[in-house]
Design a protein that fits this description.
Blueprint lengths: L3 E4 L21 H7 L3 E3 L2 H6 L10 E4 L19 H15 L14 H8 L3 H24 L4 E5 L3 E2 L29 H8 L6 H16 L7 H9 L3 H16 L8 E2 L5 E5 L11 H12 L3 H10 L30
Parallel strand pairs: 1-3, 2-3
Antiparallel strand pairs: 4-7, 5-6
């Protein structure tokens, strides 16, 4: 049983069909959670009111956004907690719940929007998501330092975007450099910018002025946008093409390359810190990490597998493969809570 969950995705817990729900059925999972003793939270004030040193809060379900949590570059700290804040509070509550016991706890922290920014080829949102993840890692490292019988493992399941710190901009021999300063003045993610451009006005002159006077100089930090760049963005009505135009504008100026909007086969970094971390030094197959966790926690996977197989769960609603496979529907209203 899961004891604690923090993040977004509230629309997947609310009964449908309803403007605030992403569900195709009428199940109200928030009410079901409360019926099973879960305490539910849905606001920054709820989160701040939690006592991080109290085990009385468990079990706990906090959904702080209708869909995904906002990108760090867009996040309003008065509305949503950061990844590091949620990590710190989770560590405190779980530590209090297992104090003076020999059970311990397992906590998974995911910087999921690193992947999503890379799918969009959005370098400014991407780097800020990485920094937000580093902040969360710092919080866990501090916990490990205070609890040396703990191990931290940090790894991703794949790389996204085929990202390279280099981009050839023309037929001439490329410069050996990149320009990180182009990312510094960017104020919003491509997801946010595109949501403000699509379907907002039918007045082409006003749209051009909005892109020229606000989108490029104020939101993207681009002071030298050409007439052709401004016109292309102002006229584009297709969301995928619009995001590509915005990505190219930022990535070219930063001289950052992208090979795909999907996943790549690039090796990913593996970090470990704390108890027996040396066993994960070097290159490993992904299954080695699972084996390490099994040994560290003393798990009996055969017993767990047998238990899962014996629990015959039947899904009441038909499966919709498009809901979780293939290209993400980034234009769905639930992805843009600021538009509601």
């Amino acid at each position: 049983m899961v004891d604690l969950m923090f993040g977004g995705g509230r629309c997947h817990f609310e009964a449908g069909p309803h403007v605030n729900s992403c569900r195709t059925d009428a199940r109200d999972l928030l009410s079901e959670a409360r019926a099973n003793r879960f305490r539910t939270l849905d606001s920054r004030s709820d989160f701040d009111a939690l006592d991080a040193n109290s085990a009385q809060s468990l079990p706990l379900l906090g959904t702080f956004a209708a869909s995904h949590m906002d990108y760090e570059i867009d996040r309003d700290p008065k509305q949503q907690p950061s990844l590091a804040e949620m990590t710190n509070k989770a560590l405190g509550i779980l530590s209090a719940a297992t104090k003076n016991t020999n059970s311990g706890f397992f906590l998974m922290v995911e910087g999921s929007r690193i992947d999503m920014a890379a799918h969009t080829n959005d370098p400014a949102a991407h780097v800020r998501e990485i920094v937000a993840y580093w902040d969360a890692i710092s919080a866990v490292r501090a916990y490990v330092d205070a609890h040396p019988d703990t191990v931290l493992i940090s790894v991703s399941d794949h790389e996204t975007g085929g990202f390279s710190v280099a981009k050839q901009l023309g037929p001439e021999y490329p410069e050996y450099l990149w320009n990180p300063f182009a990312l510094e003045p960017v104020k919003h993610s491509i997801e946010y910018v595109s949501s403000k451009l699509l379907g907002q006005t039918t007045d082409s002159a006003k749209q051009y002025e909005f892109v020229r006077d606000t989108v490029f100089p104020k939101w993207m930090g681009i002071k030298d946008a050409s007439h052709e760049e401004i016109l292309a963005v102002a006229q584009e009505a297709n969301s995928v093409q619009l995001r590509q135009l915005l990505s190219t504008a930022i990535s070219d100026r930063a001289q950052l390359g992208w090979a795909t909007h999907g996943h790549s086969a690039v090796d990913v970094n593996l970090y470990a810190y704390g108890k027996d971390a040396h066993l994960l030094r070097g290159s490993h197959e992904n299954t080695d990490i699972g084996d390490f966790i099994v040994q560290a926690l003393g798990l009996n996977l055969e017993q767990i597998t047998s238990l899962i197989k014996s629990d015959k769960v039947v899904q009441d609603t038909p499966a919709i493969k498009q809901a979780w496979m293939g290209r993400r529907d980034l234009d769905a209203p639930e992805h843009h809570p600021h538009m509601h």
